[in-house]
Amino acid sequence: MSQSHSQKSPNPQGKGGTTEIALLSEIRSFAVAPAKTVTQIASELFTALFILGSEFSFKPVVEKSYSLYRKNGRFRLSLISPSEWRCSTFGEYIGQCELQCDMSWSLELSKEAQHDAELMDYIEEKRAAFDQRMEMAQNIEQMLPQYIPTLPYYQRAFASALASSLAISMRKSGIDGLNYQNAKAHCLSVDVD
Predict the structure, then answer these.
(1) 90, 95, 116, 162: which could form a disulfide with 109 (CB 3.0–4.6 Å)?
(2) Phi-psi map region of 97: left, alpha, beta (phi>0 left; psi -120 to 50 alpha)
């Protein structure tokens, strides 16, 4: 058998270091980072980390809708909406997610998810823990997901791009280097558009 037929690519998805740097550059080139209040930053960071903590193995595209599902306590982001197949395949439909131009994510919960007490309690617990970490951080930058080695490839790349975008937003708002309380006070004293 010839060598070309017996050897498989050790990196069939092209997820090596050079490609990762190129992907990060590409993702960051799309980021539009306006000035934001610390409340907006905290909300967007929480939502993005919630979505990026779900399972998916595709490269999200800016301003495209994705469906979020939950099954057996695990979340999964999908290209396929509930109307395109049986929800039981991925579990309970949670809502529509969209990657924004600034690398943040929006999540619109379905009516069923909004009335799911267990899910809402779970989200509230996660948010309370997140808010506590925000309050305890010496500065807001400590909360940014610069590099999270436990995240899969695309989630890690988009978390890093989000961190860069939010850091720019914080500089534009004048809250970089501040802790959460000081940043809230600053945003109240200055009109941030």
Answers:
(1) 95
(2) beta
Give the tens place of pLDDT for each residue, 122-164.
Answer: 999 999 999 999 999 999 888 998 888 888 888 998 898 899 8
Query: pTM value?
Result: 0.80
Sequence-separated (6 or more) residues with CB below 8 Å from residue 192: 35, 36, 37, 173
Tell me the sheet residues that pair with 76.
Answer: 55, 69
Distance CA 103, CA 22 (A): 16
Which residues does residue 94 pair with via DSSP β-bridges, in sequence order? none
Neighbours of 109 (CB within 10 A): 17
State the number of CA atoms in the 13 A half-sphere of 77 facing the CB. Answer: 26
Residue with tokens 């799309």: 30
Long-range pairs, 105-114, Cβ under 8 A, ≥24: 105/44, 105/47, 105/48, 105/51, 105/52, 106/47, 107/47, 107/50, 107/51, 107/68
C-alpha angle 89/124/40, rounded to 5°?
Answer: 100
Q: Please measure the distance between the N-terminal and C-terminal CA atoms of the chain and give it in whole angstroms.
A: 66
